[in-house]
Design goal:
With about 325 residues, the protein is an alpha/beta fold. The protein has one domain: Purple Acid Phosphatase, chain A, domain 2. Helix content is about 25%, strand content about 25%. The protein has a seven-stranded mixed beta sheet with strand order 3-2-1-12-13-14-15. A six-stranded mixed beta sheet has the order 4-5-7-9-11-10, covered by helices on one side. β2, α4 and β3 (about 95) form a beta-alpha-beta unit. The protein starts with a strand and ends in a 20-residue tail after the last strand. Mean pLDDT is about 85; it is low at about 20-25 and about 315-325.
């Protein structure tokens, strides 16, 4: 059995002091949003508790699907590098960037340079703005990291998945299939119609869906929405591929979005007969402790079978109420 942990939307805080030059950009809207909303919900010891709990469950590998920072200032990017180094060694952690990591032009390149060891494939290439997708093989698993991150105008948080990246992702998926590996694709934005508001959507999700349909995969992990969601995409040969989102790892309890969680995926079996069990751990709705939230087996025919107790969550937070990809 091989265990993968999934964290997302870290949003490390608090914000550093910003210069007038830094505020004279899209960052001014993000700064106001932080002060009004996220400062209360995301600054505390929630992330520390969550990471400590994750370590106790001994994952074989950790995936982080973006938004490590808030406004992508140099101070924040440097701080995120230190956080990653404290979290673990680069060969144990795979990262892809989110829209907040690319908040203004030039920010994504800085983030990729600073976090390079966590965002490079097994071939060991140095920083390159065409680094994505990359592939890492860990045990029976191939982790394929893609990037949907890009700088956008104020009040937009869209991402993109373009033709060049789609073609290369398909090549890596086919290569991993030939090696008999369980294939996990990482992306920040959910590649599902209707999963995010129009101003926060993934542009090019049709390319992503086509890649999964043509080349196949066993699991897709994303962040961005700060919700616990389960969608399905059509895979190769009539299979269905689970697409799992996770709430922010820094979200405190008692707010509109679900409290902080992480996913554990237990992978067993082999080609044609993989077994995939998803276990969610996080703050209970009252914020009193970190505990099991949900456990279910994800089947390649597009069904999820509960295999353990589920915390009684408000209906608006249940993934079953979210749109499913046809």
């Amino acid at each position: 059995m091989f265990r993968i942990a999934h964290l997302s939307d870290i949003h490390l805080g608090p914000l550093p002091e910003l210069s007038y030059r830094e505020l004279a950009s899209k960052r001014i809207t993000g700064y106001i949003n932080w002060q009004r909303n996220r400062k209360r919900a995301m600054f505390g010891d929630t992330l520390l508790q969550l990471v400590a709990d994750m370590r106790q469950n001994r994952p074989d590998h950790v995936t982080v699907t973006g938004d490590l920072v808030n406004l992508a200032t140099k101070t924040e990017v440097d701080g995120a590098r230190l956080w990653l180094q404290d979290l673990g060694k680069p060969d144990w952690i795979s990262v892809v960037p989110g829209n907040h990591d690319a908040y203004v032009p030039g920010a994504l390149n800085r983030a990729c340079r600073e976090w390079n060891p966590y965002m490079v494939g097994d071939e060991g290439l140095e920083f390159d703005d065409r680094r994505f997708p990359y592939m890492r093989v860990r045990g029976p698993v191939a982790i394929i990291g893609t990037s949907s991150a890009e700088a956008t105008v104020p009040f937009f948080a869209t991402g993109s998945f373009k033709r060049r990246q789609a073609l290369r992702t398909a090549q890596l998926l086919r290569q991993a299939h030939g090696l008999g590996l369980f294939r996990i694709v990482l992306i920040h934005h959910p590649p599902i119609s209707g999963a995010a508001a129009w101003s926060k959507r993934l542009v090019g999700k049709q390319f992503f869906s086509r890649v999964i349909s043509d080349a196949g995969a066993e699991l897709v992990l994303h962040g961005h929405t700060h919700l616990d969601t389960l969608y399905w995409l059509n895979g190769h040969g009539g299979t269905r591929v689970p697409v799992c989102g996770v709430p922010s790892a820094s979200q405190s309890a008692g707010h509109e979005k679900p409290a902080a969680r992480y996913n554990l995926f237990d992978i067993d079996g082999g080609p044609g007969e993989w077994s995939l069990v998803q276990r969610e751990r996080g703050l209970t709705p009252d914020g009193s402790r970190i505990d099991w939230i949900r456990e279910r087996k994800l089947l390649a025919n597009g069904t999820a079978v509960a295999t353990g107790p589920t915390v009684d969550l408000p209906p608006a937070r249940r993934s079953e109420d979210r749109p499913q990809e046809p």
